[in-house]
Design a protein that fits this description.
The structure is a homodimer.
Chain A (H helix, E strand, L loop, with lengths): L7 H16 L6 H8 L3 H7 L3 H24 L5 H10 L17 H5 L1 H27 L9 H22 L3 H14 L20
The structure holds a DNA duplex.
Chain lengths: 207, 207
DNA sequence: GTCTATATAACGATAGAC
DNA sequence: GTCTATCGTTATATAGAC
């Protein structure tokens, strides 16, 4: 294995991605980015228009990676419920928060249409993707037909995003998992033909 | 009505509360606080230990008010489901985000046990309060006994907190409402004996 | 392309007059 | 108690050498 020599713009983007995740936009200074990237002032302003331009490149990449990671699970094998469960139970750096969702609490990101756009598009895509899976599950009889796919999708995404809030408030990932288990118990397929009425049969804990 | 003359410490706390809500801790400077409060540097450092001390007073008050506002609905009239619904549908400044929850995305708040404590306590209190209401609903047959009260409570709080994220990402309060409707449809009492699946208002006691 | 030097403003806090 | 003056540091950006 050769050690890969990464270009300076590449290092700048990656350093910015890390810092935006850790400290947000207003909490990240160009100086901190340059130190982490091992670059000088000149490099940053040569390749990018400044802090906003560099942040835009970083946010776009993070958004793209986040979508790809979600699709890897949502487009995987299993029934609709199983794929949603896999998405909800996917391993996460819970205490670090969502690298996309956390940006919505950044006043300068929300104030900029450019910076907010990738965030909006990512969460919107995720909601649509989940909505179609819920509807697929309804056709298969896995979910009650009375449910609204888009509403349930929004609830799923919100539970994940809010789970990060609960976890970071308490300093423990447990709260995230508790909220996810609650949602899964509400979504758990009730057998359509009149089987045992036990809810949450596929949730391991709290039998 | 006499116009009330508010003390300087009072104005400082209120200005800080507003700015913490709008811009978070790292995004709020002492200078901005002093300008909004109409006070000079000396006043702030005379009454408080500095930015962290002032922020702590502001966060504590916001936490207290948030709990009181939630209790006003959760301790109100109606069945357990109805009280939860009232809490979820309560009017909110959705696009401004949650003044308590948004602080969890602030690196300096999370890094400080003092500043994080009121946030943690508020969300923890809310989860416990909701859990007891869910369990009450289970005793009344309004919710399935297989559900776990604490899990459902965490899901409810997470849906609200995540709803703010969706709303701020899209720049519209609609996404919040969509997620709430999805959660309510999952929680809606299904008649225990196999009645009609109409949701909402058929409650046994305390109508 | 990358670096250092520099510029202007803001940040967070202190000192001391009144 | 409140004010202004000041301090040392950082934020964000530009200039110009190499």
């Amino acid at each position: 294995m050769y050690s890969i020599r990464v270009s300076t713009p590449e290092r700048l983007i990656e350093a910015t991605r890390e810092l935006l995740w850790e400290r947000g936009y207003v909490g990240t200074s160009p100086k901190a980015i340059l130190q982490r990237a091992g670059a000088g002032q000149g490099s940053m302003y040569h390749h990018f228009t400044g802090k906003p331009g560099l942040a835009l490149a970083a946010i776009r990449r993070t958004a793209q990676e986040t979508r790809a990671a979600a699709e890897a699970v949502l487009g995987g094998p299993g029934s609709p419920y199983e794929r949603i469960e896999a998405y909800l139970r996917r391993e996460r750096d819970v205490l670090r928060g969502c690298p996309v969702g956390r940006l919505t609490m950044d006043p300068d990101v929300v104030a900029s249409d450019d910076l907010r756009a990738p965030v909006d598009e990512t969460l919107d895509w995720l909601r649509e993707r989940l909505a179609s899976i819920v509807e697929e599950g309804q056709e298969l009889g896995e979910f009650p037909p009375a449910l609204d796919g888009e509403e349930i999708a929004a609830t799923i995404v919100a539970t994940v995003q809010g789970g990060y809030v609960l976890a970071r408030a308490s300093g423990s990932a447990a709260a995230f998992d508790t909220g996810v288990r609650g949602l899964l118990s509400l979504l758990a397929p009730r057998s359509p033909a009149g089987d045992s009425p036990a809810r949450g049969s596929s949730t391991p804990t709290k039998a």
